[in-house]
Write a structure and sequence with these properties.
Length: about 400
């Protein structure tokens, strides 16, 4: 039965190997390797003989494990693991794996007063010139910074994914031929599709309502390289039109070749409809006030005019520009109480009251005024209807 080599025999064999590797300059490969192991600042290196007696312990190992080399070299791993309260079965498991697969990789996570530390360790065999297992070497790397960086990246990716999946606007990416490579889930709602499968892989032009509009958009994008707040009419799956406002950029590879485009757009259909309705209402209001034979005024709560119609201008003898610089109190006749304005917007609101006014030429005239407090953009104003 073959006996294991003693530590002295192993040391003698290593020395013989060192002599064989000596070069002409007198620097041995063993010396060079020893210098590298001791000067290594990133990797902890610890080695044992076949009996698990520690024979090497570099400075980085001292930093990571908290022992001086002089405290562990010559000691057996069983002693050290007993001090650290680590079960010996872990060492036996590592030895068996190394014998079968030449190395064993494991990770250690521990809490310290300075925070969590993450270590990656690799146990490998030391083989002699006869290819016999003569000992073991443990390489340990502190991967805490890498783990923390990966955690930050993962958290950032999760945040971005959450934003991407819950954003109301639509994000999209196209290839150089206009095919949709990526779209946010919000595109499903906008186009009234069942899933992203009905969108991704299709041509972007398939969702543009008018081909001419699409050609004009592409022309503008190619000319400028990027477009902001561009309004174009798209269409839903059922053909219903939907207006979107998009900001899009062309993207190029490192050689300047066009890769495609990325952009974001939002549904502005309701906004445009509201704007159109407001314009229609304004046109109707303008038509009514301009053609009314009764004076129509709007004043703020302090009595400053903010609107007057042509009939009131004619009635008072002032131009609209002049009236907008005046107040309702400037228009009252000399003997007319100032309280009339407050009565029209408070106790007598919506009820006719008789008020004497004074024209630009100082002529006084009797009017019947109906006042009502109204709200415009959450601002209270007083609407007045004046009849001469």
């Amino acid at each position: 039965m073959k006996t294991k080599p003693t530590y002295q025999e192993l040391e003698k064999e290593v020395k013989m190997l060192h002599r064989e590797l000596s070069d002409k300059s007198g620097l041995t490969q063993a010396n060079l390797l020893d210098n590298i192991m001791h000067s290594s600042t990133d990797i902890s290196v610890a080695a044992t003989d076949i009996d698990l007696n520690v024979i090497f312990f570099n400075p980085r190992a001292e930093e990571i494990f908290g022992y001086k080399a002089s405290e562990v070299i010559g000691k057996n791993l069983t002693e050290i693991h007993a001090m650290e309260k680590v079960e010996f079965s872990r060492i036996e498991k590592a030895i068996e794996i190394v014998k079968k697969h030449t190395k064993y990789v494991y990770y250690v996570n521990s809490e310290t007063p300075k925070g969590a530390i993450h270590l990656k360790s690799t146990v490998s065999g030391i083989w002699d010139t006869k290819k016999q297992l003569a000992g073991f070497v443990l390489f340990t790397e502190d991967i805490t910074a890498r783990i923390n960086a990966e955690k930050i990246i993962q958290e950032s990716e999760e945040q971005l994914r959450s934003i991407f999946e819950n954003m109301q606007d639509v994000y999209y990416k196209l290839d150089a031929n206009g095919k949709i490579l990526l779209a946010s889930p919000s595109a499903v709602e906008l186009y009234k599709c069942n899933s992203l499968d009905e969108i991704i892989g299709k041509q972007a032009s398939d969702f543009v309502y008018d081909e001419m509009d699409n050609e004009e958009f592409i022309k503008e994008l190619q000319k400028k390289g990027s477009i902001k707040n561009y309004i174009i009419k798209h269409k839903r799956k059922n053909g219903e039109p939907v207006f979107v406002e998009t900001s899009t950029n062309l993207i190029f590879d490192e050689y300047g070749k066009l890769e495609g485009a990325v952009g974001i757009f939002q549904d502005i259909t309701e906004r445009l409809q509201a704007k159109e309705k407001a314009e229609e209402d304004e046109a109707i209001f303008s038509a009514i006030t301009n053609q009314s034979v009764e004076g129509i005024t709007v004043a703020d709560m302090d009595g400053n005019y903010v609107f007057v119609n042509p009939a009131f201008c004619k009635m008072s003898g002032y131009s609209a520009e002049e009236l907008l610089k005046l107040t309702v109190f400037d228009m009252k006749a000399k003997d007319q109480p100032q309280q009339s304005f407050y009565d029209s917007k408070e106790e007598m609101e919506s009820l006719p009251i008789r008020v004497s006014l004074q024209k630009k030429d100082k002529t006084e005239y009797l009017t019947e005024i109906v006042g009502k407090v109204i709200k415009v953009d959450n601002k209270e104003l007083v609407l007045g209807i004046i009849r001469d």
